[in-house]
Amino acid sequence: MSAAHWRRAMNRGAGQAQPLRDRFVVAASASSSVLHDRSLQGARGPGAFGGATTVGQPSFGFWQALMRALGMLRLRHLAALLLLLAFPWIGNDFLTYQIGAQALALGLITLSLTFLGGYGGMISLAQMSIAGVAGYTVAILGASGAEISLGWPWWAAVAFGLGFAVLSASFVGWLSVRTEGIYTIMITLAFGVAFYYLALQNYSLFNGFQGFQRVHAPEVFGVSFRKPLPFYFLCLACALAAYLLVKWTIRTPFGIALQGVRDNPRRMAALGFDVTAHRVAAYGLAGLLAGLGGVLLVWYNGLITPGSINTGWLINVLVMAVLGGMSHPLGAFLGALVFVLLQTFAIDLFDRERFNLVIGAVFLLIVLFSPDGLLGLWSGLRKRMTK
Q1: Domains of the chain as residue ranges with CATH
Q2: pLDDT at 382
C-alpha cells in the first residue's frame, strides 16, 4: 500500500487543504491532557497518519523528536541510567541475571500493555501470549535441540518472530477494538487462553507440554549472550530503545491522535480520523514491544513451554503494569522489578505457595493508596514536599 493510500485510510474525510497542525489542534481539544504546547509543536509535520505538511513549517522527523525527547531528560534520569550501567559491577552474577535481566525482559512486555492502556485506553490480557508467539517462533525456526526445529540462523528466526508477533497483535486488535469495556478484555483473554491450549495440545508444531527445552541466546562476534553480563546489557539496550520509541511515538501526530481517540473516540471520528485504524496500529506497535520482550525472555529461561504463557502470566503482566503506573512508560520496568524482587525473595519469608497472596496484597495496597502506581505515589510525595 502506498503512503498516499495509507494516509487517506487513516484520515478519511479530512480535507487535504486543511493544515495538519490546525487539524491536530482541533483533535487534541478532545482531551485536556493532550492540549499542551510541546505536543502541538511536535504535531506540525507529516507522518504516516497525517496529511500534507503546511508550507513553511519544519518537517517532523525521527531525529528531531529523538533529540527533543533526549532534551527532556533530567538529572534523575541520567542518574538512573548510570546506575543501570554500573549495576553489574555493583552486584554479582545472580543479581545481574536473575533480577536485572529478567526485570528488563518482563518490563518490555509490560511496556506494551502500558502503551496500549495509558495512551490508547485499551486493556489487553493477550500481551504475554503475543510474547509467546515470538518465543515459539524463535524456538521452532531456530535451534532448540528438538527434531521439529528448523535450525535457521538466529537473526532470521528473531525477525520472523517479531513479524509474527506484530501480525498476531494486529489481528487481536482488529477483533477487539470494535468492542468496549469488559468485552474488549474478554476477547483478548480468550485469545490468550486459546493460544495456551493450542500450544499445550499440539505436538507437531509446538511440541506439546514439553515445549522446547534448549533455546539459547546466540553468540555474536565472539560475544556469548548466554553469559550474565552480555545478556544484561542486551536487555538494557533493548529496553532503552523501546522506551525511547514509546516516548517518541506519543509525541508524533499518530500518538497525539491516539490519545485523542482514548479520551473521546466519537469526536475524533467526527473530525475525520479512522478510530479503528489508529487502535489497530497501536496494537501492532505494542506487539513489536511484546515480541521483543518474548524473545529475550525465552533466551533468559533457555526454554519455552505452555506454562510460560498460561493464564497466570496473562494476569501477571497486568499486575506489573498497575504496580508501576499505567500512565508512565518507566512504570512498566519499575513494576516488573518489584514483581521479580517479590518473586525471588518473598519465598524466604513466606511459603512458595503463598506468593500469589503476597503479590495480591501489594497490588491491593497500590490500587487503594495510589491508583497511578508507584510512580504516581512518588509524584504525589514530591508535590507534598515542595509545598
Answers
A1: 3-67 (no CATH), 77-386 (1.10.3470)
A2: 67
